[in-house]
Amino acid sequence: MSALDDMALSDEALEAWMAAKTNRPLVRTMSALDGFVTAAVTGPRYPDPQDWMCPLMGLPRDVLAKGSATDHAVFASVARIHNRINETLFDRPQDYAPRFATKPSGGIDPRPWCQGFYAAMNLNIKSWRRLLDLDNPNHGLLLPILIYCVDKRGGPSSASPGRGPRPRASSSMRPTKTSPSSSPHCANSTTSPAMAMATRSDRRRRAD
């Protein structure tokens, strides 16, 4: 078991923390969190993982130096999810599967995951802008995600083609039952979560 495993919260505890947090994390379910982190891994890079991890969870930028034990556990939990997704996508891409939510009726609900992905895009929208250009041949890769996304007013996202199901604005903000994910593959590190993530970022750069 790695240092991140020792520090991180269980999925159930992390989702409960997101649902109750008063500092307004950008997502409130594990499915939406998985979508957000997937966008952070696959999209434009940040100079420092804390540039997206702290806003994502509503944590202060100096959380590693001044945060509480719970703050550190939340940060470690996100770092562990990042490392799992990063390793899967770049080492075993055939094994990657989005962590979609499950409807009460038993069907798959992709909306929270897609809305989480879209939240990550909005946090770094200038870097994503070229992929939102309709003339960009790669824009079509985002359409299966964007058709499920809504803006802050509850309407179709500005990047959406204006088709497809219309989720309510709060669909990704309510805890829902999520589909089982594969076992985490975490950084085997005794350093801080940020340093553990830096190790994985180096792996990713070599894979590019």
What does this entry look like structurally?
The protein has helices at residues 3-7, 11-20, 30-42, 50-57, 63-66, 69-91, 111-123, 125-128, 143-146, 193-207; strands at 101-102, 108-109. It is mostly helical and 208 residues long. It starts with a helix and ends with a helix.
Give structural attributes.
single chain; about 210 residues; mainly alpha; two-stranded antiparallel sheet; 10 helices; about 0% strand
Instruction: Pick out the low-confidence regions.
Output: 161-203
The first-to-last residue Cα distance is: 28 Å
Number of strands: 2
| Percentage of residues in strands | under 5%
| Strand order within the widest beta sheet | 1-2
What percent of residues adopt helix (DSSP H or I)? 40-55%
- Describe the global form: globular
Structural class: mainly alpha
SSE diagram, text form:
Blueprint: H1 3-7, H2 11-20, H3 30-42, H4 50-57, H5 63-66, H6 69-91, E1 101-102, E2 108-109, H7 111-123, H8 125-128, H9 143-146, H10 193-207
Antiparallel strand pairs: 1-2
Helix pairs in contact: 3-6, 3-7, 6-10
In brief:
The protein is mainly α and 208 residues long. The chain has helices at residues 3-7, 11-20, 30-42, 50-57, 63-66, 69-91, 111-123, 125-128, 143-146, 193-207; strands at residues 101-102, 108-109. The protein is globular and about 45 Å long.
